[in-house]
Design brief:
The complex is a heterodimer of chains A (351) and B (253). By secondary structure, chain A is mainly alpha-helical. Chain A folds into 2 domains: 207 residues, Orthogonal Bundle (Arp2/3 complex 21 kDa subunit ARPC3); 106 residues, no CATH class. Chain A has 11 helices and 4 strands; from the N terminus they run H-H-E-E-H-H-H-H-H-E-E-H-H-H-H. A two-stranded antiparallel ribbon of chain A has the order 1-2. In chain A, helix 1 packs antiparallel against helix 8 and helix 3 runs parallel beside helix 7. The longest helix of chain A is centred in the middle third of the chain and has 33 residues. The radius of gyration of chain A is 26 Å and the shape is globular. Chain B has 253 residues and is mainly alpha-helical. Chain B folds into 2 domains: 154 residues, no CATH class; 69 residues, no CATH class. Chain B is built from 10 helices and 2 strands, in the order αααααββααααα. In chain B, strands 1-2 form a two-stranded antiparallel ribbon. Classes of the chains: A mainly alpha (351), B mainly alpha (253).
Amino acid sequence: MHVPDGFIDAPTSAVTGVVAATAVAVSLRGARRELDERTAPLAGLVAAFIFAVQMLNFPVAAGTSGHLLGGALAAILVGPYTGVLCVSVVLLMQGILFADGGLTALGVNITNMAIVTTVVAYAVFRLLVKVLPRGRRSITVASFAAALLSVPAAALAFTLMYAVGGTTDVSLGKVATAMVGVHVLIGLGEATITALTVGAVVAVRPDLVYGARDLRQRLSLRVNGELVDAPAAEPAPVAARPPRRIWAVGLVTSLVLAGFVSFYASANPDGLEKVAADHGIDKKAEDHAAADSPLADYGVKDITDARLSGGLAGVIGVGVTVVAGSAVFWAVRRRRTAGPADVSPASTSGA
Amino acid sequence: MGAGHAHRLYRHGHSPVHGLPPHTKLAATFAFVVVVVSTPREAMWAFGLYAVLLAAVARTARVPARFLLKRLLIEVPFVAFAVLMPFVAEGERVEVLGVSLSVGGLWGAWNVLAKGTLGVAASVLLASTTELRELLLGLQRLKLPPLLVQIASFMVRYGDVIADEMRRMRIARESRGFEAKGVRHWGVLAKSAGALFIRSYERGERVHLAMVSRGYAGTMPVIDEVTASRAQWTYALTLPLSALVVCLLGWTL
């Protein structure tokens, strides 16, 4: 499923690149929380494992064989953040070293095969583990379902990208049917192997399976002939979500929405404008004072391509809004912190 | 680290391309592929010129054509896919040798084939003229997050170790008379994969302890800082810049 160069057009590749970079940045932080300073060696070795296990061929019938993709397996074994990181690193190295998957399609590939599979698999897995009774068998069943759904989900995500930025005029229905149809079959194989592998690890070292942490037995002490649960270790206090990350995610989302998704927004007048035009309400409406500004009517003046112009105007709009909003926020906070003598720790940490 | 650590994709040499700092090569390759992808597909001659440019680079790097062509074979699955396109695409159709093909599909197939092949050829040239460790250093110079570079370097260093471990497990299975024939044997293979995961994870823990006992505190020291002079940048960027000229010609002509 490695997408080569030229399959998806340049703007879509750029947007998926931004999505992939954001997700990898978030996962880097998340993985540090999952593994602390052991991140580099452990995630590296797990990435090497994913890389090796992709070379392990599973015979299907005479002559044909399949191999594991590993997104769901990584998510269940080492957690979603580390999983995203490991699969992304594998894809990056495959792109640069083995020319497997195009360099410009790296964003598309990482979004599809590292992010969508891992996130879908982990969400399904957590949900099922919560619903099903506690036990080893539920872990196996949940891994099966998670891997089964994750592969067609990636195929669907690819179809979506193809719909937005495909370079060939193949009808969407055909692409979707072919991709999802084939990948349901692949998903079945992936699901069986993932479930068996997770089952094998749970049987030997359940403590290594991130998704099965809840299965761990509480330590019990025999006090005067009675079994008493040992007190659980104090959970480490969870750090508050850093505002900078929320800010960055919001900014990226609004930029993507404004600059890119607005291509596809309806160019028809919105409900109010439509009603106004139908009933002649707007006859008297005067043109807005800014009607001849360079950004009037959500378009950039001298750019004739309607989509490009709309997108650019959206991006500029988001930029101006963010700058203006930050200026107001900054001014308000300056005044508030200037009043009392003590400076809040949040503002000193440079958030 | 001696000669045994070079990966099999790398082709040892002392050409001017081998000598360039890795980050300039990475940037040049990436820029070249971006330019190729944004060329209009109707400008067929432009892709010919790109191929000539790459051939010139291969010649300067003294990478033989056979080596390059053999490595291009990785593309084959997508060639099969591209061949299907003219049959399934929509729109205007044209008769070729009595078979009805879609015009849009033909263009699409050409587009994927040309751009994909050029992209693969560029990556192959990069990998065959740059050593693995250099590539990782180059990625770090290009401001990839250091943690990501560390993970990638561990993956690259231990990839062969883990693959070897997998090979030894296969030999152990086979010497006990096991032969994977079909779905019935997936259980055995999956148990091997599980054992491989446990071994990899435990190796990771041991590696971490070994590093901590040697003073690791979260970052790797950079021993050989590579810098590129202006001349080296210019030399490396000749490829994407000339490609850019071709691309602009393709848009205007």
